[in-house]
Amino acid sequence: MIRHRMGAFALVGLLAVAGAAPASAQFRNEISNDLRKCTSASGPGLLVTVDGVKASQGDMRVQSYRATKADWLEKGHWLSRIEVPAKAGTMTFCLPVPGPGTYGVAVRHDLNGNGKTDITEDGGAMSNNPSINIFNLGKPSYTKVGVEVGSKVKSIRVQMKYM
Predict the structure, then answer these.
(1) Mean pLDDT throughout 84-105?
(2) In three state form, how does the secondary structure of 76-87 look?
(3) Which among 23, 113, 139, 149 counts the fewest CB atoms within 10 Å?
(4) How far does the signal peptide extend, from start to end residue (predicted)?
(5) What pTM does this model have?
């Protein structure tokens, strides 16, 4: 009887670990910018059009997050990331999401390509184009950036801001 209970506890523990693995795998997915994944027949996802890219130099980084207090802009909590060379003007990105829900998008233009945020040179944008000021220190609330995504692809536009 004791051996049977120990086996049952071991099985429950194994199932808990197995169930946790997919949850941790949901973060930090580096993907290519495959616009074919954001057609009218696909989804769910976000088709993000970025306006006002300052120059064709450096790198663009676009990341999706769940628009929750626990995940929005938290280190390592991004769902998908696309990094590509910057092109001046307008750029478009496809960010598939795991399922219907509320998501936020953060965009950064690393103008000199050094991998660091240079506040006086680099640009940024976020879904719903929230105001960024001294009071929110560049991190507006998840409630300001949240975009509802259903079972289809949702198109949004963001405007780059530079200092």
Answers:
(1) 97
(2) CCCCEEEEEECC
(3) 23
(4) 1-25
(5) 0.81
